[in-house]
Amino acid sequence: MTPLLALIGAKPGGHDVAMEILSMRLYSDHDQHRPTDPELAAAGRALLAQLPFSHDDRDGSFRLQLVAKPALTGAEGPETARLVWRNLVAAIVRQETYAFEQQGLLKALFSTQPALLLGEVTAGDEDTTQQMFRLLRDAGRVDGNPVDVIPAETLLAWCRAAPSTRFLQAAAIITAVTGGTDGAAAQWTSSAHALLGKAPDRAAVLD
User: Fold this and answer.
1) What is the 3-state secondary structure (H, E, C) of 22-57?
2) Closest alpha carbon to 23 in 67, 61, 57
3) How confident is the model at residue 60 (pLDDT cuts 50, 70, 90)?
4) pTM of the model
5) Helices (DSSP H) in 54-102: which residue ranges?
6) What residues contact 28, with CB distance under 8 A and at least 6 apart?
């Protein structure tokens, strides 16, 4: 199946068709409780590495998440995730797509390779990091903050590796409060609780 997907994906307009075929197969395997075929995961990595971006991508959100879960885990997952993230950022800078149109892809990236993606977001200078923060805020305008898929303990582990900077960076991109509208009580999210409970400078994180 992998050589066939490669042939389909290489044709003009064939990438979406190849992704659809692969996602259907992966969905079937998951539904039947079959382990993921490593060749299918490899095909997913190849297709994700060549992912085109446009302003019509929101309909492919579920399909992307199906493909990304097996493709971006395992030994070869991190490098593909890094490449996909950088390609996405470049496409957004060129205005070929918007961050809020890539909610499914962003959630897939942050759920499969959270530490790597957090590192990518905060790897540049201050201006670049703030640009990445704005990208994530834009991504959350429609279907929620993609960073919220990261479990609180995973977020804390990343912060503890460089606590003087990372707690503040994490505080800048998580959703801190839920509720507060339509009669629902406002309350801290689990990530906000975790950061406030473990940060070396709680006042700075709260600010």
Assistant:
1) HHHHHHHHHHCCCCCCHHHHHHHHHHHHCCCCCCCC
2) 67
3) low
4) 0.88
5) 61-71, 77-93
6) none
